[in-house]
Amino acid sequence: xxxxxxxxxxxxxxxxxxFVDETILAGEVVWRxxxxxxxxxxxxxxxxxxxxxxxxxxxxxxxxxxTERWVFPPEGDPARFTNHSDTPNLTVVVNSAVSPxxxxxxxxxxxxxxxxxxxxRTFDSSLVERKLGWQ
Length: 135
What we know:
Blueprint: E1 6-10, E2 16-20, E3 29-31, E4 39-41, H1 43-47, H2 51-58, E5 62-63, E6 70-72, E7 83-84, E8 90-93, E9 103-106, E10 117-118
Parallel strand pairs: 7-10
Antiparallel strand pairs: 1-2, 3-9, 4-6, 5-6, 8-9
């Protein structure tokens, strides 16, 4: 769940993206997993889904290196629009004392209106098994 104000808009990176609606300081946690809000599936539950469901989730879910579960935001959550970048403005921090899942932290100060991006390869272990169009 994003912990900062965001809005969805057209992205130069890919389709729609999530943009900050406030200035973010370097080092600020901007996203964290929130049980009861964010969703998870075991590998077995994911495997049992139909092809269309798997395809839809493959665009918004990641396979956690920490929990080995598929993690994804619920319908209507702006996190579904977080795009990948090789030069992201968010970095991934793992702190199991704070969250079972990685935290997204601002690498730099991010001005209001800038798109939030992260390097998917730093937290999604499914990328070892599948190739996406941007790889």
